[in-house]
């Protein structure tokens, strides 16, 4: 329910309130459009996130199964020694991208050097190792960029959800509080000014009649 604002019923206040109502109405439309666009992009990201998560989880599950199988066929200390030394260094570059006034992360892997041959994928020779270990490491290498992409999308979804909630509160504040209260106050001031005008005219008529009788 709208409540009239506590202002003096003057023509100046009426002009100011009408200007405020115009700004609030235009602001409400812009925020509502922003909210709708955020929701559209958010739904698309959620769909991408679900598809990518299923893909990554399937790959990680396969890699884990191969690791378990390799562990059952090989000595664990030997496996730890084989994978202890990385073949190359990996760095992570991260910057921000603005989407509908939301700063979202963008991340990318950078490798210190490119592998020159198929044999350089692993830091060990194929002798005395199982194919399951090779496949597990290969899968993990392939899934890392996808895992990074998944992290990026999930963080973006979180940030956009926060922005949607913030925008929703602002839209509701304008739609259900500020705009109705301002409209109620404008109606009150207009009615008050009309009443004062009628009272003034009535007094003038009485003064005129009294003057004519005198």
TrEMBL record:
Residues 35-66 form a coiled coil. Pfam families: ATP-synt_D (PF01813). InterPro entries: V_ATPase_D (IPR002699). Keywords: ATP synthesis, Coiled coil, Hydrogen ion transport, Ion transport, Transport. GO terms for biological process: proton motive force-driven plasma membrane ATP synthesis. The keyword Coiled coil applies. GO terms for molecular function: ATP binding; proton-transporting ATP synthase activity, rotational mechanism; proton-transporting ATPase activity, rotational mechanism. The keyword Transport applies. Belongs to the V-ATPase D subunit family. HAMAP family: ATP_synth_D_arch. PANTHER family: V-TYPE ATP SYNTHASE SUBUNIT D. Produces ATP from ADP in the presence of a proton gradient across the membrane. This is V-type ATP synthase subunit D. It comes from Aerococcus sanguinicola. The lineage of its organism: Bacteria, Bacillati, Bacillota, Bacilli, Lactobacillales. The gene is atpD.
């Amino acid at each position: 329910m709208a409540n009239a604002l506590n202002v003096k019923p003057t023509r100046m206040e009426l002009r100011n309130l009408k200007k405020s109502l115009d700004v609030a109405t235009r602001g409400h439309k812009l925020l509502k459009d922003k909210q709708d666009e955020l929701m559209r992009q958010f739904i698309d990201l959620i769909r991408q996130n679900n598809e990518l998560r299923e893909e990554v989880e399937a790959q990680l599950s396969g890699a884990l199964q191969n690791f378990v199988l390799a562990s059952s066929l090989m000595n664990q200390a030997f496996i730890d020694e084989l994978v202890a030394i990385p073949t190359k260094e990996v760095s992570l570059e991260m910057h921000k991208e603005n989407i509908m006034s939301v700063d979202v992360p963008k991340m990318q892997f950078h490798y210190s050097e490119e592998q020159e041959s198929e044999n350089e994928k692993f830091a060990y020779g194929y002798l005395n190792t199982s194919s399951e270990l090779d496949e597990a490491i290969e899968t993990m290498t392939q899934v890392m960029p996808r895992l990074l992409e998944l992290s990026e999308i999930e963080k973006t979804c979180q940030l956009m959800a926060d922005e949607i909630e913030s925008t929703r509160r602002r839209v509701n504040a304008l739609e259900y509080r500020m705009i109705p209260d301002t409209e109620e106050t404008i109606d009150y001031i207009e009615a008050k000014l009309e009443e004062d005008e009628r009272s003034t005219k009535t007094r003038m008529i009485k003064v005129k009649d009294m003057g004519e009788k005198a």
